[in-house]
Amino acid sequence: MNAHEIDYRIFGEEMQYVEIELDPNETVIAEPGSFLMMDEDIEMQTLFGDGTDQDEGVFGKLLGAGKRVLTGEKLFMTAFTHRGADKAQVSFASPYPGKIIPLDLSQLGHKIICQKDAFLCAAKGARVGIEFSKKLGRGFFGGEGFIMQKIEGDGLAFLHAGGYIVRKELVVGEHLRVDTGCLVGFTKEVDYDIQFVKGVKNKIFGGEGLFFASLIGPGSVWIQTLPISRLSDRILSNSKGYFGKGKGEGSVLGGLGDLLDGDGFF
Questions:
Q1: Which domain holds residue 57?
Q2: Is the Cβ–Cβ distance between 200 and 255 less than 8 Å?
Q3: Are 224 and 184 in contact (CB under 8 A)?
Q4: Is residue 26 part of a domain?
Q5: Looking at the domain assignment, is residue 173 inside a domain?
């Protein structure tokens, strides 16, 4: 199925949104809850799965929805179709501070493998499915488990991740090690596995976990600087509880460090 050809603009810095411009009868699919605003002539429809199996009967619809459940997403996706004349716009917002990146699947081997919550929206015709890990170590310790998300097709798709997103181009045999939580996605040619952190002190006191994500080229890799898990942990550890603060930032003394810095417990 050929994807619809859509135009877009991305607005904002830390909290971005993408505005999709649709010609008559063009459609964009999106994650539920990402919708921001739309023009009057755009019609919204809730679909099982990604909408590509709507003509394949009940079984096809259930299969598409089941794939989304396995990746931790909702059963449904939302389609926005322009039913008027001329052009119309529909916009989708990022769920937390970070960046939205456009990916032209036709220039990326028609397939991207990504973390389970990275997909934001895409031109109709993109297929959003699951990618099973074939390696036990990667499944148990890779940060994303045995199931990742895959986006296939030949049109535009939009991903979102935390902080800033870095794209690295790996040549044949080039090896890149990444924090498992910072890996956003990669093209299908990349050999992805996990690698143990070397050194006892590094494992116990390094604070970076026991494993790296190991990626060997050729192919493209996208990396986020601030995973949502790291952001939420930082907020919780520094928030004020009922009886006082969280950990003392930058001090091994914890609460005593707060006292010495001039901050009391209450």
A1: 7-163
A2: no
A3: yes
A4: yes
A5: no
Helix (H) or strand (E) holding 260: helix 255-260
The tens digit of pLDDT for each residue in 61-109 reads 555 555 555 555 566 789 999 999 999 999 999 988 899 999 999 999 9
Nearest to 4 by CA among 22, 30, 31: 22
Q: What is the pLDDT of residues 124-168, one digit of tens each?
A: 888 888 887 665 444 444 444 447 888 999 999 999 999 999 999
pTM over 0.70? The answer is yes
The pair of structure tokens assigned to 242 is 């009922």
Residue 141 lies in a domain: yes
Q: What's 28's domain CATH number?
A: 3.60.160.10
Order of strands, sheet of 88-93, starting from the edge strand that comes earlier in the sequence: 7-11, 17-22, 88-93, 35-38
φ, ψ dihedrals at 218, nearest 5°: -90, 160
Q: Which of 167, 158, 88, 83 is nearest to 126 (CA)?
A: 158
- CA end-to-end span of the chain: 61
Indicate the pairing of strand 17-22 with strand 7-11.
antiparallel
116 located within any domain: yes
When divided into structural domains, the chain yields a total of: 1
Q: How far is CA 56 from CA 53, 63, 64, 124, 186, in A?
A: 5, 10, 10, 16, 30
